Amino acid sequence: MSEPLEHAMLFDLEPTELVKEPVEQAVVEQDADAAGQGALDIGIAIPTPFAEPEVDEEVEAEAEEVNEEVLQHPETAPRRHPNKVSFYQEPEDTARLRGAVLHTMVAEGHRSLSQFIIRAVMKEVQRVEDKYNDGKPFPAVAANEMPQGRPQR
Predict the structure, then answer these.
(1) From CA 131, how far away is CA 122, in angstroms rounded?
(2) CA–CA separation, 73 vs 57, rounded Å?
(3) Rounded CA gap, 38 and 47, in Å?
(4) Which of 1, 29, 139, 143 has its CA 20 to 30 A from that of 14?
(5) How confident is the model at residue 87, as a pLDDT?
(6) Closest among 152, 147, 93 to 117, alpha carbons compared
(7) In the prediction, which pLDDT does 97 show?
(8) Which residue, among 115, 113, 84, has the nearest Cα to 96 in the 3D structure?
(9) pTM metric for this prediction
(10) What are the start-end ranges of the H helices in 17-112?
(11) How many whole angstroms from its chain centre is CA 144?
């Protein structure tokens, strides 16, 4: 292997003296239209900093009342999503359900597993209301009013 070359030998540069002459810089005058531009005029407007909006005291007071109501009675607060409902199902049936949803999304128009299940369940609810309650909805039942645990034999 050859001996490593020194830096000076690689580039074969002679040391140079520094030039100490002042460099002229061009001064560019800005138009009044370019006042929002930055130091470099590249044709892109630099946005002005965000200003805080004015605070409406009446709106703020109303929002504070609503916040207090939600904190004191969270069960009546508006939800971002509908209530979650869960149930037990055999794994093979769950896989079959997911397959049916995935392979028919475009043809049937459902966007999600939830939407598919809601449509199917509500269709069955309508069927039993028609059959057993003259097509009228049954009285509503809260989640804690449903029998819990395994069904009695």
Answers:
(1) 14
(2) 24
(3) 10
(4) 1
(5) 84
(6) 93
(7) 95
(8) 113
(9) 0.46
(10) 57-72, 91-108
(11) 32
Q: Which amino acid is at 63?
A: A
pLDDT in tens, 32-69: 555 544 555 666 666 666 666 677 777 777 777 776 77
The label of the residue with tokens 């001996």 reads 3
At residue 99, the 3 state secondary structure works out as helix
**How far is Cα 17 from Cα 47, in angstroms, rounded to an integer?**
45
Tens of pLDDT, residue by residue over 89-124, are 999 999 999 999 999 999 988 889 999 999 999 999
Look up residue 87 and give its two tokens.
């149930």
Mean pLDDT value across the chain: 75
Residue 126 to residue 114: CA distance in whole angstroms: 18
Check: CB of residue 113 under 8 Å from CB of residue 100.
no
CA dihedral in degrees (120, 125, 131, 132; nearest 10)?
Answer: 160
What is d(CA 153, CA 139) in angstroms, rounded to the nearest whole number?
25
> Cα(79)–Cα(76) distance, rounded to whole angstroms?
9
Count how many residues are written for the chain.
153
Token couple for 138: 């049954």
